[in-house]
Amino acid sequence: MDDIHNTEDKILEQVDILSSRLQDIKTAISGQIFGQEEVIELTLTTLFAGGHALLIGVPGLAKTKLVETLGGVLGLHNKRIQFTPDLMPADILGSEILETAADGQRHFRFIKGPIFTQLLMSDEINRASPRTQSALLQAMQEKRVTIAGEEHILPEPFHVLATQNPIEQEGTYPLPEAQLDRFMMQIDVGYPDERTEKQILIETTGTNTPHIPAVLSASELLKAQQLVRSVPVSDQVIEAILKLVRQARPEQSENALVKQYVTWGPGPRASQALILAARARALLENRLSPSIDDVIDLAIPILKHRMALSYSARAENITEENIIQSLTQTMQ
């Protein structure tokens, strides 16, 4: 019993230490990104939970700026890849080249691709061919790259923030649903309100270039991610997560909308994402344990890209958000 109390005290102490740093992180980000508070919160939650995120929004909504800012504030080395149809897997992963030494001997040397970074911005990922998408998504899952039979471990931590443009689908290759599951969250980036847009106009068209301070280091982020996994979760929250995910599957659900409009629902990885993200959200808000409210608030970004709707749903303008909201209403 003493050991349990000592462990809880240690976790609480670590949460208190991290909470002040988290406030500095949010302050530093807000000095670069105006508005988009929910997008920032969800993206931070994803990173502290150790996952990847898919950002959906039209061009010009500061998605690239968000990644650059997060890289600087969290002390992560970041790179950006602009995806195009002619991009090959080797352009991302790297390739071997044949070199000739001074003595005439030849040998292969591996040249690392841009994926060898800690925070990777994959811009317009749906413009790349399925072969290139698969190479990236496999590396996201396995955290390593295999070239010519030799494994190369990716840096730690390793996170991908990918973007998609929702309004221009010509010449794109939509990610298969099974590959979308590799992303912990799908985060919708909307237009700023009028007041925020006015602030953007004033702050970003002058001569000042705001400095991005490094608040955390990569090693500190790794420790925070381990702390997230140590945050206790009550049986009540675990049962709520299980019920929510299972009720989103048509073959297991009692929900009329799910049975009528959902072709297939989220798998166990959705439950894992929910519990990790709920823990991270509690930590970001300086709480020792997540609540059912955390599960409700995270349900849409975690479940919506893990569900497939029928043609009748789209014909009747029924969305994934409508169905998930109908499920979470019974949890309140």
Set down the secondary structure blueprint.
Blueprint: H1 2-30, H2 37-48, E1 53-56, H3 63-73, E2 78-82, H4 89-93, E3 94-100, E4 106-112, E5 119-123, H5 130-142, E6 144-147, E7 150-153, E8 159-164, H6 177-180, E9 185-188, H7 194-204, H8 218-230, H9 235-247, H10 256-261, E10 262-264, H11 268-284, H12 292-303, E11 308-309, H13 311-315, H14 320-328
Parallel strand pairs: 1-8, 1-9, 2-5, 5-8
Antiparallel strand pairs: 3-4, 6-7, 10-11
Task: Write up this protein.
The chain has 332 residues and is an alpha/beta fold. The chain has a domain at 231-332: Magnesium chelatase subunit I, C-Terminal domain (Helicase, Ruva Protein, domain 3, Orthogonal Bundle), CATH 1.10.8.80. The chain is built from 14 helices and 11 strands. Strands 2-5-8-1-9 form a 5-stranded parallel β-sheet. A two-stranded antiparallel ribbon has the order 3-4. Helix 2 crosses helix 11 and helix 11 crosses helix 12. It is globular and about 75 Å long. It starts with a helix and ends with a helix. Mean pLDDT is 88; it is low at 1-5.
Keyphrases for this structure?
five-stranded parallel beta sheet, alpha/beta, 15% strand, globular, single chain, 14 helices, Helicase, Ruva Protein, domain 3
